[in-house]
Amino acid sequence: MVASLTLHVSLPCSGASQLQGILSRGRAALREQGIWYPGEGCLPRDGLNQQAIGDARDQAVRHAETTRAEIAGHPGHVIVSADSLAHLDATGVEEVLALLGARPDTVRVVITALDLGRLLPALWTNTVENGFTTHFEPYLMAAVDRRRDDGEPWRTALDLPALVSRWQAAVGADRVTLVPVPPETTGPGLLWTRFAEAAGLEPRPPAPLPFGRATDDGTRLSAGQAQMLRALNSVMLGLPSPTQRELRERVLAAWGASGASGTSGESSGPRLVLPDSFRGTVREWAAEDITRLRAIHARLCGRITDLDPVFGPSTGPVAEPVRDTLARDVLALLTPVGGEAATLDARVPRARARPAEQASRSRW
Question: What is the span of the domain harbouring residue 211?
């Protein structure tokens, strides 16, 4: 039986990758403190996280058993991090605790959560990166329907007060801490500081912090890149799935993790944000969630007001010069010349400017 355990339960796109990167790179430093972060050398991606713990698929079950055996062999404190834990219902929560051999009074649960204003665009972007073709606004309309349906499995992870309540019921309210993801302007250090305090870790991170935004909220692509990728997914539908995946990964790798510019070095435009027409609804959802979290006396590390939705300037249709740049990037990446990708300007000349009235009607 595990001596003591911290479970990091992350809502999708809510800082998990950043925190997991620090934990995995800092394994040696954590071991010196008597803390075990499992999976090195025996889990996918060298144990960046322990996703298999909350996954019922056959291969995941095998990885979960491997993780359990590794944890059982460590006499000290263990940290397990997986956003799959956010998708568990009450029965699933009990099953995971039993799988890990953890008594509720030895478990500490840390839940990281991003505000809905940033979360919903990030979720859509992730679906596009995984090959889906639904446009952004229909995706949001479906989210509205799902939010209203109490029986919808989608709510399991995204109904934050219910998520907190499930873990409170399993291990006790004083053992569950909610960490709101801070605003981007704070830099990456504040998220780690909040997480470390909630998890009972030393405030000094065991590995260097990443540069850039406060957290990886899933919107690594610009609005133009995400919309271009969705269109690319649509035109690739007739290709074999492995081919689609390979081409998509080539484009994503070339655009890079930051999404700050196209491969040609030109700006790819602003990040995706919620349309104005959905912002009132999302504000209402956030206010409801905050009220419910206060009612269940959710233990916080950070400010509950960080769950107020953040929107940013409206993006609207992708500007034509940006779209042309992205189109040239994609064509160059997918059109080899002599075994290597063609240079952009050589292979895809700039499109002629369209008349203003025609450009105003075009949108992705």
Answer: 4-116+156-217+281-307
